[in-house]
Each structure stands twice: as structure tokens, then as C-alpha cells.
User: Fold these one by one.
Assistant:
Number 1:
Amino acid sequence: MELLSHSPEETEDIGARLAQRLGPGAVVAFTGDLGAGKTAFTRGLARGLGIPDRVTSPTFTIVNEYEGGRLPLFHFDMYRLGSADELFDIGWEDYLRRGGVCAVEWSENIADALEEDTVRVDIRRGGSDQERSITITGVSAL
């Protein structure tokens, strides 16, 4: 499905709607340019899961964990990873077994490790500074 967002708040709202469709062990794999809105979308996922914490980019920590909602949220930033092998070194399989939602920014860096049932979210800049084109596959209509 293709959606158009006109603001970071609308991008978050789309993420919150997607969160309602996700179950334990879901993986949401993001692609898109730097600053396209992947973290804003993940803030929406957290809100949709009922997580009260402030969501920030895990650029330097690789993963941020958020609990306190319907499901835990594990927010990964794979920008600095060179391969899927490095993903397994940080305990990827353990996160999958914990029954939360794994939100993966820069998922193209670990594409070999993603399963067929991964929800894919591609976010691209639109015609204006605030506009974003969001393509979601692997889940039924929001």
C-alpha cells in the first residue's frame, strides 16, 4: 500500500496505525534516505503499542529497548553494521524470541537475515520538505 504524509505527525500516525496490526515477533524493516522519517514512523509504532517512553534514534547504541506497552519495541539502527553476520553477534535471535516488535532502520544492510514475513516500510521524500511517500508491504490495509 502507498500512503502520503504531509508532516512528521502524519508519519507517526501511520506508524501508530500499523502497530495495531502487529503481533509478537513482528519485524518492521525500514528503507529510505537519511532524514526521511524512519524514526518518526518508529515513534508512531511505539505510541500505537502504548509505550510511554520518548523514542530516539539508536544510531550509536545499535538498539534501544522500550517496554510498558502491549508489546515491547526493539528499535535497531543497522547503519553501522557491515553484514547480517554482525547482526547475529548482537543477539538478533534473542530479540526475536522475546516476543516484541523489532523496528529495523537501514534494513538493507542486513537483508540476508530478514524472513519472508517481514513488514517492509520504504519512506521517501515527496514534493515538499514535509511530504513523504510511504510504501508498506507485508501487512493488510491500514
Number 2:
Amino acid sequence: MIDGSSHRKTLRQSVDWWVIGVYLLLVIIGWVNIYAATHTSSVGSMLDWSSRAGKQFVWILTSFGLAGLILWILPSQLWEGGAPVLYAFVLGLLVLVIFVSSDVKGSHSWFDLGPIRFQPAEVSKITTSLLLSLVMSQQWFKMSRIRDFLLAAAIIGLPMLVIVAESETGSALVYAGFIFVLYREGLSGWWLAAIGLVIMLFVGTLTAGSYTTILVMIGILVLCTAFSQPSRLKDRLLIGGGFVLAMALFPSLLNWLGSLVQGQMDKLAMRPWVPRADETQDYYWGFVLRIKPVWVLIGLSVAALPAVLWAAYKYKDKFLALCCGVFIAGTIMVFSTDFVFQNVLQPHQRGRIEVLLGLKEDLAGVGYNVNQSKIAIGSGGLLGKGFLKGTQTTFGFVPEQSTDFIFCTVGEEWGFLGCLVVIGLYVFLIARLILDAERCRGKFTRIYGYCVAACIFMHLFINVGMTVGLMPVIGIPLPLLSYGGSSLWAFTILIFIFLALYRNEKKYF
């Protein structure tokens, strides 16, 4: 029998100091840039307690205390055993905050606790990660079973829906990152493709219109039909080529038909002596003029679907049957997009999406933040203007520059190279977390490590994309850089719980 104590690793050997080092660098970079974003002539130093930089310093010190508490004092078994209780408690806080919080820029998501404010949505990412890891690490859990998949989806979806009810769209969107965790644990890649398809259909319908979107979907369906059935290459080329030619001529054919019908209508309008019997013909041509091309395409597609489904059944082609299902769901998605856009989204959310997609230009309204952010980042050039020398930053042109738009401060004062360093640190941190997770023998620790990496990735992707105009402005902090105690504490706890779990595993291996 091997004596485990003789193989116990030292603190230096069992802790991933690379992760801790990157964490410290990002926190310091954030503190420096918060000071730059809020610096005025009345603020003397970074330790001025009346300024945001001074307050952030307090949050940093308390975060270090939390990190040490989690890593060296609290037992790592606490997080696995207490996951259900912590999840239920935070979910209750998410519901409670809707009724007791005050309105903060249209959002009901903050508890006012005297001089500080607390946002439970930040902590919910931790408890969701813990419970999801606990459930998915059980021996009975199988991602391929519908029951188990729905259980995992419910763990993710419950806090996400409550956060949406709080009007915190940005925080809710982070939960979409858990799909990568499910994929790592056996979820089919078709789910990722389906999410991508939904996004493309939504964007395509808003920008190109329902006609073009349905046209592309029909094209994909026909080509899948042609190339999935066991036919000769010549037949496949004929079907594919015929489809492309038909779709190319279809708009011209409809325009010609419309001109012909309109000409006939004009002739009827010039003949006041038209007998009563011709009123039926007048109504018929008017009905034809009101037919939209997209309805003609849908009619043809619906008529063709039974034949395609029969071909899928005859040749036992599951892929073709899946394509038909996706086409039906996609058609519903296309025609529900306008309803969702007009009736579900808030006016400011619709405006931000329209600006993002180039549907309208509002540089003085909803597009002001992004426009000023891009000006700030672009003006930094390669090396930046220097610390406290950014004009956009100094004169406060970018709103929320110390929180949601902290990245534009980095771009203006430290330039492209500064942005590259910051993004590089995040990429290294995420990669290191995934590498450590894969090294773990315990399934709970591995899954939790992927949850941490997914949360950080989604925050990074959305926030940086938002500041450079590639994502709509939805109000989400940049991890460890943005001003705010709730965010800093949440990410500190999220990261150091994983480091504690990882250290517990590496003590003896």
C-alpha cells in the first residue's frame, strides 16, 4: 500500500500559478484603466476613496481576501456538496430582486445595501456552473438521453429566464455559452449548427427580407435532396443546375407576370362599360397582384415536402429528414422574426440591433456610444496616445467608459498593441483553464473548469464585440477589468473555486 502522505505535493506544485498570475495582471490593468477613464482635475491619485479607482482598489483587496479564503481555508468539498442549496438560494434572490429593487436604466437587478449595490445575476453564473457540474458528473447522467438533456437545459434556463425578466439581456446572453460545456460532454454538434442557423435566419430576415431568406433555405433543401439520394453524378448536376437556373429566372418571371397583370388591370380601368360578368375577372387579377413571391415559394415548398420526406424514408436517409425538419422550423422562424422584433424586444434594443445591422444610422441616439467607442479605439493607432492622454477618455465622450466600455480606454491610450496584450491575456487564461480541466481526473472539476472558461469567453466576446460595433450594446462588463464590486467578486470566486478544486486533485497526483 502506497503512503499518500509521501506523495503529497507542495503548494507551489499543486496550484496553477499561471492562472493566478494572469488574474493579477488583468485586475491591475483594469484598475489603471478605470483611473484613466474617470480621471479629472479634482481626482488626485488612484487611491482617492471618493473616486471609482479608489473604490475599485477596495474591491480588489477584498477580492484577494476572497481568493485566499477559497483557495486555502474553505474545504473544496463544500462546492460540490452545497451546489443545490447555493443554486436554490441565488435563484430565490434573482426572483426577489425583481420586486424589491429600484429601476436602474430600465433594469430591476440590483439590491441596494446602503453604500454598496449587489447584483445576484453575477453570482448566478457561479451557482449554475456548480449545479450543472454536479448533475452532469453523476454516473447515471447521459447527454444522449432526452430526460437528462432537458434536466441540464432546465438548470441553465431557469436563471436565464429570470434574468431576462429583470431586463438584463446581456447577463442572460452569457448563459448561451454553456452550450459549449454540453458539447464537450457529448451533446451533438447539430445543436451548435441549429443555434448558428437561428442567428443567421434572424439576421438574414431583418437585413435581406423574408423572400431572400426563404429562397436560400429552399436552395439548401433542394441541394441536400439532390446530393443525399443515391443517384448518378449526372443526375445530381442536372438537379442542382436546374434549381440554380430556376431560382435565377424566378424573380424575372414574377416581374413579367406582375407587369402583364398590371397592364390588364389598366385596360379594365379604362373600360367603364365592362359588363358585370367581368367584375369576377377584375377581382381575380387584383388577387393575383396581391400574391407575394415568398408565398408562391412556400406553396411550392410545402407541395414538395411530402416527396422529399418520402425519399428520406425510402432511402433511410436521416440527414434528409433532418433537413426537412430544419426547413419547417426555419420557415416558422423567418415569419416569427418580425413579430419578435416588433413586440418582444424593447425599443432601445430594436434601435441597437438596427444600428448594428446598418438598417439605420443614429449617431446622436442609440448609435452614439458605439460610434464614440470606435473613434476612441481607432484614434489610439498602433501604440496609443499614452496614459491619461486620451482625448475621448479625458473629455468623457464615451458613456459608461469605466464599466461596459472600458476596452475603448485601452484602445485609445495603449493602442492596438495594448488591445492585443489584453485579448492575449484572456485567450491564455481561457486556454489554461481548459487545459487544467482536461488534466483533472474528477468529472465534476473538469466540467466546472469548462463552465468557467465558457463564462469568461462569452463576456469577452460580447463586450469587445460591442465596443468595436460587431455586437449590439447590451451592457455587460469585461471580466476583471470593468469597474464594479459584484463583477470582480463574482469572477474571482468563479476562478478560484476551480483553482481550489484543481489543487485538491493535484495534491497527490
Number 3:
Amino acid sequence: MAADLKYYDVILKPVLTEKSMAAMEEKKYTFLVNPLATKSQVKEAVEKMFPGTAVSKVNTMNIDGKRKRRGMIFGRTAKTKKAIVTLTAESKDIEIFEGL
């Protein structure tokens, strides 16, 4: 079941953590993506949104919502999907992460 997503709906926002910042030296960039997006859709979206980049590999992981409590009521936060995009050696870097 492939979702009918446009490339600009696939990538939601970058993940800015110490671990993801350290991985950028190896040309690995982490994004929160639409939970219905496939690896090939993530690859296409990165290459279209950031000209000059060439994706070699995409790893994705589904993250269940955390269990939260408000008084006696239990609920869950929203499920998310994270994608780690590895660029080729001759690819340009992604500029939105520069200077962070």
C-alpha cells in the first residue's frame, strides 16, 4: 500500500540531537518523515528538496508513541517515523544543517 504523497509532504523536519549531529560527519542525515512514506519516497524527496545531493542508502524506523498520563487517564503520543539518509561520497552536503 504505497501512499500517494508528494515529495514535499514526505520530510517533516530534521532531527537535531547530539547523536544525529555526530553522524553528519559521515554524511548521514536524520529526518522525521511521514509514517506512510517508503524508503524510495524518502530518497526521491531528499534528492528533489536538496539539489546536488545523491542518496546512497535510506534506513527507516517506526517509533511508537510514548505512554503519557494525565491524572488517572492514560494515553499515547503520536507515532512517528524516522529516516537516516546516507549520501554518496561525491554528493553535496545538505545546507540546512550548516552552522549548527
Number 4:
Amino acid sequence: MYGKMELGLNEAQVSINTILTKAMENEERPIAISVADRNGKMIAYVRMDRCAPLPQKIAIAKAYTSAIMGDDTGAIAQRMKEANRKNSDLGDPGLMFLQGGVVIKHSDGTVLGGIGVSGLAADEDEELARIGLNSIQHLLN
């Protein structure tokens, strides 16, 4: 029998609330945030008022991609570009290779899930996702 560490609703909510606190400093730039478990299934999601539909879908896809591929979406995008590969080459239409998704790992390296943020410039999305990740690091040991 195997025992698996699981990312829970508490960690997802702490992460989302931390990201929202930072994002609300500029409510004129609304974002969407998604947290997924290791299988890419959504644990929690939120969008700010007036967030456009596309960033909402992209945030979900970034969290999913980070979780199932076990890496940050910016790093995956760079590898795909260097290998001259496209999303469709992997056979999963849910994958999103844009910066702004970060993988959540246990201190032993086990992938627990992913955080996806969308609505700003890609590097700003990633910065916010990292803020959320940093807010739960102490809970992942």
C-alpha cells in the first residue's frame, strides 16, 4: 500500500487568499487564480470582478499543466520552444505553455499540484503564482 501526500483545500485557500491580497492592490487589473491537485483536478478557483473570460480559462489550464507535468509552465514553454514542439504534439488540449503556472511540491520533491494565475503580463502572472506558492511552503513539509 502507498501513502500519498495530498494538497488540500486549506493550502489552496491560503494560496489564493495571499495572491488576491496582492492583486487587490490594483483592482483595475483583474486576474483569475486556480489551484489544482497532482492529477490536474481543480481544488479551488477564484476570479476578480471584471476578469475577462479568456484569463479565467488560462488560469485553470496553467494550474492543470503545472500539476500534471510537474514543472512551471514558463520552463515547460521554454523547453517546448527549444525542441520546436507545439501543445498539440502532446495530445492533451488542456495543456497551456505560458508563464504563470507554478508547480507545488512537497519538501521531498513529490508533486502535489499547481497554481495558475492569468490576467496580467506573463511574468506578472508568474510572480503572483510564486507569492501564492511561498505562502504555503511551510505547510508542505
